[in-house]
């Protein structure tokens, strides 16, 4: 609500201030975006044409350069979303920007979790012979995907912006606490069954030379893609909030006129 | 004496719709104020702001010495609202509803039971009616049950939103008597009613609302 | 806080005693789910008995969605939710009270459903102390998460569809741990269920703690 209060108290100043800060932010975003695109293209080129085949996996090993970076980004995204939600729930640090950050980061996280699950399945099918296995990491990732789908659905329900933010922050906290419990109980559940049909420990690869560099580049460029997407989503929601506040100033003036008749 | 209600340029919103657009109003302790204005002038929103159901967005609002921006919850035990809904549980009897509300406001079991009986009798809801589930009561009896909650709670600030609606003449007289009595006990009352003659008779002062704020002149619907 | 919790819990259970919605609708629903599982898996007891506890807990999970929805349907009629906010009750007390009422309802449901399970699937109920302990701990976790998300979704137009999507993934570990504990108890090795009981316990404690702290901000949203 503080943003609304500011908008009400200084309706003229906000537009010029907005264009100035957004100019700098836009430049930073454009640089990040360019680097991200260059990085992803370079990763693809290195991964497809420069790095060698693996003795056991053959060409499949090339998924190494995108799948782990995507999973990494997904977990980073949820971490940042949860941290922002906590900062929002904590009364002393409550500010709409943390809510916007949580929303932007969770949204990007869901996209990357989806990609992680898809690339993982594509990798798993020829390697282990199955599309899916009840490995703790896989199960937790899948559950994270649905947990945050629910979170995004909750965010999308229209309402008073403060109410939406509070609901979402609590939901994010609930989901975040759930992740370690799920991971722990699923791994225990698995370990009590007979020897696993699929041995995921087989994913230990000998990464060397150009492979290591390509993998590192993959991590860096996907993190940049994440920053770029989140930056845009964040900027968009800030602009929407500004627009709503500007409309509000007009609406207040219009409503005050009703009293004059 | 500190005023019971002090609002300065109070703005309240529902999403992006401005409910209140800068209300400045002071109500002394023990005063009865009648809020007048056409539909949509902001009467209900003003009453709901005073009990913290509507959030203050900007401006200042002090109710019974509590700052609504910072401590919305702490005014609640001293404020009673008679709103458009009665806040009753259909499956419980009138007696159970009133007793639950009184217990919730912090009274002990025995005290709540005694006051419940007194309040229900005061509103002609004693005896068999008291043990009937409120879903089987008439609209007027429901309304009276809601008033009984206020009588039992004896809040320091009464917020009455259309209190006369849905009541017969006898019950309206009863209500006006209760309002006068509560003032005797030192309570402050804010009410909005379309029964202008009745409300003006019981009130010390009329405040006109229009467009979500206080106006000098009576506002007529366009 | 505990006083307020007892008050709200008593109120919810009293309404349930009057209306019998959980007993007359949710319990039969759970029994129907069990029956349908039986039809889906076929009459072979060698298939049904090992699957019994898993099917039982899936039925409980679905039923707890309904129990939570019912718990908030009470509060949405006649805007009782606003009444609850106005009452001055401690939000943590409201959370614990409502969770306590759902817990009591779920435990009754589980007792009845366990008998149905023994009857329909021919499962022999063994290791009753472990069965009971895991049922109580699991229901506590379900009630805590359910009331938290029920409050987040209540008052929204899409609450019926949103609640299951939010609730069911979160309680996946409860399904897992409770099913394991029941499997072990039914198989005659209840002493090996300790670990799963502690998973259920940790889950319940964590979500009760989150609810106690965070329920205030959910109640104060509008």
Supply the key terms:
heterotrimer; A: 261 residues; mainly alpha; globular; disordered N terminus; C: 222 residues
Question: Could you explain how this protein is built, in words?
Answer:
The complex is a heterotrimer of chains A (261), B (222) and C (222). Chain A is mainly α and 261 residues long. Chain A has one domain (33-195, 212-241). In chain A, 79% of the residues lie in helices and 0% in strands. The longest helix of chain B has 16 residues, at 169-184. Chain B has 222 residues and is α/β, with parallel strands linked by helices. In chain B, a hairpin with a 2-residue loop joins strand 4 and strand 5 (66-67). Chain B is globular. Chain B has a six-stranded mixed sheet, with helices on both faces. In chain C, 85% of the residues lie in helices and 0% in strands. The A-C interface holds A 89, 143, 146-147, 149-151, 153-154, 157, 159-160, 162-163, 166-167, 169-171, 173-175, 177-178, 181-182, 184-186, 188-189, 192 and C 145, 148-149, 152-153, 156-158, 162, 165-166, 169-170, 172-173, 176-177, 180, 195, 199, 202-203, 206-207, 210, 214, 217-218, 220-222.
List the SSEs and their pairings.
The complex is a heterotrimer of chains A (261), B (222) and C (222).
Chain A: H1 2-9, H2 13-50, H3 67-89, H4 96-128, H5 136-156, H6 161-192, H7 209-258
Chain B: E1 5-14, E2 17-27, E3 32-36, H1 43-50, E4 56-63, E5 66-67, E6 79-82, H2 94-104, H3 109-122, H4 139-153, E7 157-161, H5 169-184, E8 188-192, H6 196-202, E9 205-210, E10 213-215
Parallel strand pairs in B: 3-8, 3-9, 6-7, 7-8
Antiparallel strand pairs in B: 1-2, 1-4, 4-5, 9-10
Helix pairs in contact in B: 2-3, 2-4, 3-4
Chain C: H1 2-19, H2 21-41, H3 45-76, H4 80-86, H5 91-121, H6 128-153, H7 159-170, H8 172-186, H9 194-219
Give the radius of gyration of chain C. 18 Å
CATH class of chain B: Alpha Beta
Ends of chain C: how far apart? 23 Å
Question: Any low-confidence stretches of chain B, pLDDT <50, length ≥5?
Answer: none
Helix content bin of chain C: over 70%
One letter per element, helices H and strands E, the order of chain B comes to EEEHEEEHHHEHEHEE
- Beta-strand proportion of chain C: under 5%
Whole-number mean pLDDT of chain B:
89
How many strands in all of chain C?
0
Shape of chain B: globular
Order of helices and strands of chain C: HHHHHHHHH
Q: Quaternary status of these chains?
A: heterotrimer
Chain pair forming the biggest interface: A-C, 32 and 31 residues
N→C terminal distance of chain B: 39 Å
Range of helix content of chain B = 25-40%
CATH architecture of chain B: 3-Layer(aba) Sandwich
Q: Predict the CATH topology of chain B.
A: Rossmann fold
Under CATH, the homologous superfamily of chain B reads P-loop containing nucleotide triphosphate hydrolases
């Amino acid at each position: 609500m503080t943003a609304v209060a500011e908008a009400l108290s200084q309706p003229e100043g906000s537009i010029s201030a907005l264009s100035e800060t957004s100019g700098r932010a836009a430049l930073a975003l454009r640089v990040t975006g360019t680097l991200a695109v260059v990085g992803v293209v370079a990763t693809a080129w290195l991964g497809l044409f420069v790095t060698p085949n693996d003795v056991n996996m053959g060409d499949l090993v090339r998924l190494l350069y995108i799948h782990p970076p995507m999973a990494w980004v997904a977990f980073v995204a949820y971490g940042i979303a949860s941290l922002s939600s906590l900062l929002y729930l904590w009364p002393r640090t409550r500010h709409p920007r943390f809510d916007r950050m949580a929303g932007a980061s969770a949204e990007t996280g869901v996209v990357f979790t989806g990609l992680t699950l898809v690339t993982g399945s594509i990798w798993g099918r020829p390697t282990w012979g199955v599309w899916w296995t009840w490995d703790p990491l896989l199960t937790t990732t899948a559950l994270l995907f649905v947990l945050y789908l629910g979170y995004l659905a909750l965010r999308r329900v229209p309402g008073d912006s403060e109410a939406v933010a509070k609901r979402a922050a609590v939901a994010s906290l609930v989901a975040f606490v759930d992740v370690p419990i799920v991971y722990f109980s699923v791994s225990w559940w698995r370990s009590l069954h007979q020897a696993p049909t699929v041995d995921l420990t087989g994913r230990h690869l000998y990464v060397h030379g150009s492979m290591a560099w390509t993998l590192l580049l993959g991590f860096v460029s996907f993190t940049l893609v994440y920053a770029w997407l989140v930056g845009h989503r964040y900027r968009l929601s800030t602009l929407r909030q500004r627009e709503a506040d500007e409309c509000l100033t007009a609406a207040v003036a219009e409503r005050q006129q009703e009293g004059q008749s | 004496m500190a005023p019971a209600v002090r609002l300065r340029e109070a703005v309240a919103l529902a999403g992006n719709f401005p409910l209140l657009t800068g209300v400045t109003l002071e109500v002394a302790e023990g005063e009865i104020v009648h809020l007048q204005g056409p539909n949509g002038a902001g009467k209900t929103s003003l009453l709901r702001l005073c009990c913290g159901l509507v959030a203050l967005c900007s401006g200042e609002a002090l109710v019974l010495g509590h700052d609504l921006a910072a401590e919305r919850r702490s005014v609640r035990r001293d404020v009673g609202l008679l709103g458009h809904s009665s806040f009753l549980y259909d499956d419980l009897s009138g007696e159970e509803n009133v007793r639950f509300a009184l217990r919730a406001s912090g009274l002990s079991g025995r005290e709540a039971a005694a006051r419940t009986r007194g309040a229900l009798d005061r509103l002609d809801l004693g005896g068999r009616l008291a043990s009937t589930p409120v879903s089987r009561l008439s609209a007027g009896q429901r309304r009276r049950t809601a008033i009984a909650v206020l009588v039992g709670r004896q809040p320091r600030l009464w917020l009455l939103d259309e209190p006369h609606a849905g009541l017969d003449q006898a019950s309206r007289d009863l209500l006006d008597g209760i309002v006068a009595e509560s003032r005797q006990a030192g309570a402050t009352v804010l009410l909005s009613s379309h029964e202008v003659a009745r409300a003006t008779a019981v009130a010390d002062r009329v405040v006109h609302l229009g467009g979500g704020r206080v106006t000098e002149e009576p506002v007529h619907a366009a | 806080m505990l006083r307020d919790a007892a008050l709200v819990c008593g109120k919810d259970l009293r309404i349930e005693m009057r209306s019998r919605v959980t007993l007359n609708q949710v319990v039969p629903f759970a029994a129907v789910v069990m029956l349908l599982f039986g039809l889906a898996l076929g009459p072979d007891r060698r298939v049904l008995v090992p699957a019994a506890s898993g099917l039982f807990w899936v039925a409980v999970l679905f039923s707890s969605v309904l129990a939570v929805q019912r718990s908030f349907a009470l509060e949405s009629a006649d805007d009782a939710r606003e009444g609850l906010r106005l009452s001055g009750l401690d939000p943590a007390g409201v959370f614990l009270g409502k969770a306590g009422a759902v817990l009591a309802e779920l435990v009754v449901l589980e007792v009845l459903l366990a008998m149905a399970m023994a009857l329909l699937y021919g499962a022999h109920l063994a290791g009753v102390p472990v069965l009971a302990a895991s049922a109580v701990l699991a229901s506590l976790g379900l009630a805590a998460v359910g009331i938290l998300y029920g409050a987040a979704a209540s008052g929204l137009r899409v609450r019926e569809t949103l609640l299951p999507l939010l609730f069911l993934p979160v309680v996946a570990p409860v399904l897992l741990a409770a099913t394991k504990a029941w499997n072990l108890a039914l198989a005659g090795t209840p002493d090996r269920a300790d670990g799963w009981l502690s998973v259920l316990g940790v889950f319940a404690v964590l979500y009760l703690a989150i609810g106690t702290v965070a329920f205030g901000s959910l109640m104060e949203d509008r």
